[in-house]
Request: fold
Amino acid sequence: MPFDWEQLKPNHRLTEPQKRLVREIGENFLLKGTGIPDHQKKVELKKERNVLNELVQVGLIRNNWNHYYPTFQALYYLSDTLRDNYAEMLHLIFKAIQALYEDSGPQRFSLQQVEQQVNLLISASSGTLAWRGGNVYPHRAALFLLDFTRLVSVQESSPDTPVAAVVATDNILDYEDLQLAWREELALRPSRPNLPVASVPLEEPKEATSSNSAQPKTDLGNVTVTPPSPTPSPSTTHPELAKSIVEVAVRALSDKPATLDLLEFGDYADALIDLIQSPKTQTPLTIGIDGPWGSGKTTLMGMMRDRLDRERGETNKEPKAHTYGSMPGSTIEKRVCGRRSHSKFSLRSENR
Reply:
């Protein structure tokens, strides 16, 4: 069954330069088989490089191994032929993983095993499958397995072969088609507000013809947010709301950690704090927070710091190399290795 690409259409507005950038990253990987080096792209974009981080945050591209790749949702902006071909190949990959799981049970399947099973499925189709407009490569389509965490977990490999192996969950037994799998994946994703996209000038908004004109809606695939009406002014009726809007706008142009919990990290911060403060937690213990630039590592650490400091009645604005919590020797720090940063929360016993 052909995939309904309107499922991937984001309701938040992208500028034409942003759409071209998503299209460039998607076509570069699917046609050439490589990601775009992040440093190279940032140098090319110069003052507009922040748009890369914004597209990562809204889920249209991802940064792995210091390279940019498309997400499954980015297929919406690609040509019909290219996206239809890779949707069909991704469907075959899921059917192949399902067959392997049914035969062998839960275990790690290498990409080579999956590709062999895909070839068997293609052979069994008696020539009913025909790729339009060129070759379609299973190892490239496998990149989009990263977006279907309900069905599989992925072992990542290298810039040229992003996926080395997969481990299927028992949900793979329920797989029927790609369209249904995507809807089920969206249903499990946490809702979050749309992040502002401000590094490239937006199109000029049209003037409303009446006070009841419909407000534009924004969406991240599974949640729709309607912006507040511009009248009356929030600065006069809701000062806190006005302050929040300003903070969000500034955050879009800055690499500083956010003060608003836009990514809904509160539950994670609470869980980590409970672990740190629990008398049952044995030290030494290291908790790693790993992710690409702009994914919110420092924001999460700062949130933990602020909550721990409030409990202790302290205030400290410096996020690095600070001591937290009720356990002796607990420290939080951020280390940068090359272009990929790694944040570590380390607990160690000390004699005091």
Notes: The chain has a mean pLDDT of 75. Residues 266-347 form one domain. The longest strand covers residues 330-337.
